[in-house]
Design brief:
The chain is an alpha/beta fold.
Length: about 280
């Protein structure tokens, strides 16, 4: 086994859950955490990490470095990780967009370190290690984004894939730009739609009594509106070009609905949408 020490930089919901998931899956090595003293204290209570350390200490001791901060912070820390990481260390991340991170990692690491971008398609609206859980990744697609869409044939990379499967996730390999285009539609646009819907409802139903007349559709559709802008700021910035196009197409679809309310052609649109839903989430 090549991965005996895992250092998690950013022990929040994702980083903490990764530590808990590894331990639940039988990982017997050390799990080190780099976060604020308060977060490390909570992570130790939860059993997400074995010890808290400074970044230089944790990275220098690591076989696997797991970057689980916001995208901008990941990009900022890559040179420091390169400075302290052992030669055979594998570095990965859990950022929600990949182009900016992978491009910067390629510049910083070159051929001196192995960096594999990653994005577990799992999470919650709430943040923090207190919300972490060992089963967070179970059943979720876990995207890996090597620079050219091909994983290097290295034993430590195969071991990472093995642990991703052991924590219950499904490894999936995409090129970074393809990943960002795909998640524009599967993750980022839904967030904006949910937030926009919540705002629209609140602005037109200002009587608190009226807001009690709520069905499960509104509950489900506005769940993502609970998400913090702190998480989404870097996502919207680093994937803005894809989102611009997606929003234009979504707005065009809404205008089509507006212009054909009650018209026969909407029946085919509803039927097509139903088929999409069944394909995405089979019952």
């Amino acid at each position: 086994m090549q991965i005996q020490t895992v250092s998690i930089l950013g022990v929040g919901l994702i980083g903490g859950s990764f530590g808990l998931a590894l331990r639940a899956a039988g990982f017997g090595g050390r799990i080190l955490g780099v976060s604020s003293p308060r977060t490390i204290e909570a992570a130790l209570r939860r059993g997400a990490v074995d010890a808290g350390m400074s970044l230089p200490e944790a990275v220098a001791a690591a076989d696997l470095v797991y970057l689980a901060q916001p995208i901008g912070r990941i990009v900022e820390l890559l040179p420091e990780v390169e400075r302290y990481a052992p030669p055979n260390c594998l570095v990965t991340d859990a950022g929600s967009t990949k182009r900016a991170i992978v491009e910067r990692a390629s510049e910083v690491f070159g051929a001196s370190r192995c960096f594999i971008g990653g994005h577990p398609m799992a999470g919650k609206a709430q943040r923090g290690v207190e919300r972490s859980e060992a089963d967070l990744f179970r059943g979720a697609v876990y995207v890996l984004t090597p620079p050219h869409g091909r994983l290097p044939e290295l034993p430590i990379v195969r071991e990472l894939l093995n642990w991703i499967e052991k924590i219950g996730a499904v490894p999936w390999v995409l090129a970074p730009d393809v990943h960002d285009e795909v998640v524009t539609w599967t993750s980022h646009l839904p967030q904006l739609v949910s937030s926009a819907l919540a705002l629209s409802v609140s602005r037109h139903l200002d009587d608190p009594e009226h807001l009690k007349v709520v069905g499960p559709g509104l509950r489900d559709m506005t769940r993502l509106a609970q998400s913090s802008y702190d998480i989404w700021r870097d996502i919207l910035t680093t994937n803005g070009d894809n989102l611009q196009g997606a929003l234009e197409q979504y707005i065009a679809q809404l205008k089509h609905f507006r212009d054909h309310l009650g018209a026969p052609e909407l029946e085919s649109d509803f039927e097509a949408a139903r088929r999409v839903r069944e394909k995405l989430f089979p019952t």
